[in-house]
Each structure stands twice: as structure tokens, then as C-alpha cells.
Amino acid sequence: MIPFSQTKIRLIEAGNKGDEVAAALYGLEELHFLFRQNNHSKAACHLQGLLTLCGMHDSEAKPVLLCSCNDNSIHAYDLPSFSERGKIFSKQEVRSIQLGPGGLFFTGDGTGEVRVWKWLTQPATI
């Protein structure tokens, strides 16, 4: 597959010498992340059907990237490693993710439903 357009983003994590993250966005629908540590590269994640990206910090001030996809899910990734942290599922495609005050964030899906989320300080027990 040849991408019709490509945008490359390079992020460098401050404080970790030699660690580097590169992201390639293909046609606004396909995203590849590459994590390089001490000059060794590994593919961290590959998403198709990408709709929205939103970077934020969790309750412990750790950086997190939220990526909504056309399969009605939001993937959460720790930065800079891009290890998957979890998923949020919705009734329809999430088209909007917005940051709010006090650690809140909001998602809006195709049904018109807006949900309010907050990072937990402690893991929840079920």
C-alpha cells in the first residue's frame, strides 16, 4: 500500500538521553509509532482507522496518548514507550476528545453522547 500523504512527527522525551519516539501518520487514517532506545528500534504500535488523537497526563502526571479509531474504541498509550495501557469502548465512533479542568477529559461519539472521564489515583477493584 502506498500512502497518498504522509506526515512524520518526531518527539523526544526529555530526561531520557538516547530515547526517541517517531510517529508516522499516513493519509490521516493510519498511524505508526516507533520507539528507539539506545539506538535500538522497535515498532511500538500500529493503528488503522484513526479518527482523533489527544495527549494528556494521568493522575500521576505521566504522559498518555489517547487515539480514537473507527472500531468504536479509544486506545490509551503510555508515552514515550507507546505500550498499550487500555481501551475505552463506545456505542459509535468517538469523534472528539477534549481536556477539562482537574484531570477530567470528555469524549463525544456519533450518537451525540458526551461522556466525562477522570483518571483514578488508585486501580479500581471489581
UniProtKB/TrEMBL annotation:
SUPFAM superfamilies: WD40 repeat-like (SSF50978). It comes from the Eukaryota. This is Uncharacterized protein. It comes from Ilex paraguariensis.
